[in-house]
Amino acid sequence: MAIKLLIIFFLFPNVIYSAINGDQCVTNKGVRGICMGFYECQSAVNDYRLGIFPQLCQNSNKYTVCCPGNNKVPSNNINRINSQTRPSKQKCDEYSKIATNVSLFGGLSLGTFHTEKVETYTCELSISLIVGGEPAKANEFPHMAALGWRGLDRYEFNCGASLISDRYVLTAAHCEKWNGKLPDIVRLGDLDLRSNSDGVQEQDFPVEAFIRHENYDSRQKKNDIAVVRMRYNVRAWQKNIRPACLWSQQNINQNQVIATGYGSTGYAEGNSDKLLKVNLFVSNTYRCGEINIDNTQICAGDERNNRDTCQGDSGGPLQITLPNNKCTFYIVGITSFGENVCGYSNAVYTRVSAYIDWIERIVWG
């Protein structure tokens, strides 16, 4: 995590002198605003992360910014975030810092120099609008994992997974066995499973234990969730190997999600060696095509554009990012099952938030 110092002396024409929090101001674009602390103004934080310096107000003890319109961060959101003390939230905060640069945003105020920390994010995410999917870029999904079974001359990768700690990946319970055998390895950080010239350095970890949910029902396809413990810890995070966060809320606050996997690119086609990504839409119903689902499952797809997950994507993540941090992924679902004809109907995903306590008990208990 890099730290750099940006010194801004309040000597510019657009600085509003003798202002205090709550005073009215006008931005250099002619928009009326209110002077408030930098971190209280969402638009100022967003602009700064894009390299745009906010207009500054000034008072006797600290700097403030001219915040246009009603861009104040709701206090109830701040309190809710601070109240989340469960292990997965604490680990999420830790993992988010891996892809974060911290700058010291500072200036002079009546002869006194003040600084505050501002976080900027650096990652490779580039989502555009897997069946109907497109290849991912190097380092774009650093939590993506693949489960491999030892074959005659190479590993066969038949399920996906998500790195959620330095020792565990999250996957589907139905990935426990392939032809009666447990997976042999977890592969991390790979962009192309069959190529050594894809620009990334993958790492393989032997599987120590496959822990599926105790109430997994293979016939009803319920509680289709498992964690895999690797024999060794990941010793150091890399650009292409970094854990994702777990989404702990029942509701997903956006209807567009991202699915990734090494699965088939079409019906009756073989699995893809390349990591694919696709944008899907969440259906907020308890019916997924011809399938009835419950509140432990998610229905998602894009039937209009024939986009879907397919065979081989099983166990892989359904994920979102938040508007103020595109570098941290939240796993909202695990690819579970769908129709045989990929891309022509929505698929069913295990809802991660329904199993947060179970995951935390095993991974961080």
TrEMBL record:
Keywords: Disulfide bond, Glycoprotein, Hydrolase, Immunity, Innate immunity, Protease, Secreted, Serine protease, Signal. GO terms for cellular component: extracellular region. GO terms for molecular function: serine-type endopeptidase activity. GO terms for biological process: innate immune response; proteolysis. Gene3D superfamilies: Trypsin-like serine proteases (2.40.10.10). InterPro entries: CLIP (IPR022700), CLIP_Serine_Protease (IPR051333), Peptidase_S1_PA (IPR009003), Peptidase_S1_PA_chymotrypsin (IPR043504), Peptidase_S1A (IPR001314), Trypsin_dom (IPR001254), TRYPSIN_HIS (IPR018114), TRYPSIN_SER (IPR033116). The keyword Glycoprotein applies. Residues 1-18 form the signal peptide. Residues 130-364 form the Peptidase S1 domain. CDD domains: Tryp_SPc (cd00190). SUPFAM superfamilies: Trypsin-like serine proteases. Its main location: secreted. It is found in: Secreted. Belongs to the peptidase S1 family. CLIP subfamily. This is Peptidase S1 domain-containing protein. It comes from Polypedilum vanderplanki (Sleeping chironomid midge).
